[in-house]
Design a protein that fits this description.
300 residues, alpha+beta, Transferase(Phosphotransferase), domain 1, 2 domains, 4-stranded antiparallel beta sheet, two-stranded antiparallel sheet
């Protein structure tokens, strides 16, 4: 992955930033503490994990490191200009805390982007953004997920708060890979492939195969991402007409009354069909990100 020019100061900034406040936070006895620091240039996230002398393979740092974006010769032209749709990793560091410690501290330094998130953007529209804005944002978000899945990483927590939007061109950046899963690239070709995944994520974006699980479930993480994409698109379309806390009103995608209103205003019904397919209850019925992109490309 190309090194950002800021990497020259990122490690120094990180070590200054975590010197006192974060260690105080981490040493308070909470086994799952996450501490953050941000300034105008970088954002540092510090987490605890079991010690193994390296970045844990299922950690956020490992997942983001894996997104090296070396796919310039992508066979799908839809993806070619969108390799920067994920927040850039500048540095990562694991520090074991003594031989007897149960934990290591993992520091992940990413570039800080002063951009609003999709939730904030949606809150400015009582009736949701116009169709052309929705289509561009839906396309760019699906591209971001497709790139992640092509690089063997499922995001695991897709929601408007984890999507930064550049309002100048409506490009997006995915952030917060805390629940990311590795080893999923083949699952875009075999929708029936599953792996054991811990129940983690955010309701109402959590797919039913995880939402109704106790602790672990055998799921296809790629299709879990696609369900979350479908719910995210529903909130994007509805604006403030649907409460983010009202799961019952959004668990099947865009509410029928909203769909009928927007179709009456000229929105293409095919878009709502494509978005609804993302939240299909049976996971293999959901499209992959590339399939969803191709469906969007045919909608004007």
């Amino acid at each position: 992955m190309p090194r950002c020019p800021a990497v020259a100061f990122s490690t120094c900034t990180m070590r200054r930033a975590v010197s006192c406040p974060i260690f105080t936070c981490l040493d308070n006895g909470d086994d799952n503490t996450v501490a953050h620091f941000r300034d105008a240039r970088v954002m540092v996230k510090c987490t605890k994990s079991v010690p193994n002398g390296k970045i844990p393979p299922e950690s956020e740092a490992s997942a983001m490191r894996h997104l090296d974006f070396k796919v310039d010769a992508s066979p799908d032209t839809l993806l070619a200009p969108h390799h920067e749709c994920v927040a850039a990793v500048l540095d990562s560091l694991v520090i074991p805390q003594g031989n007897t410690s149960r934990f290591v501290y993992t520091y992940l330094t990413t570039k800080y982007y002063a951009l609003p998130d999709l939730f904030t953007l949606c809150s400015h529209f009582n009736s949701g953004p116009p169709w052309r804005v929705v289509k561009v944002l839906a396309t760019n978000l699906a591209r971001a997920l497709a790139v992640c899945h092509m690089h063997d990483v499922a995001h695991g927590d897709v929601k408007p708060e984890n999507v930064l939007v550049n309002v100048a061109d409506l490009s997006v950046k995915l952030i917060d890979f805390a629940f990311a899963r590795r080893g999923v690239i083949h699952m875009t070709r075999n929708k029936h492939a599953v792996k054991a995944v811990a129940k983690a994520g955010t309701e109402p974006y959590l797919a039913p195969e995880l939402r109704f699980a106790d602790q672990f479930s055998l799921v296809n993480p790629v299709l879990v991402d696609m369900y979350a994409l479908g719910i995210t698109l529903a909130f994007l379309v509805c604006g403030t007409r649907v409460s983010v806390h009202d799961y019952s009103s959004i668990s099947l995608g865009v509410p029928r009354v909203v769909k009928e209103e927007l179709v009456g205003k000229g929105w293409p019904g095919a878009f709502f069909d494509a978005a609804a397919s993302c939240v299909a209850h049976w996971p293999p019925d959901r499209p992959t990100a590339l399939e969803f992109l191709r469906a969007l490309a045919g909608i004007d």
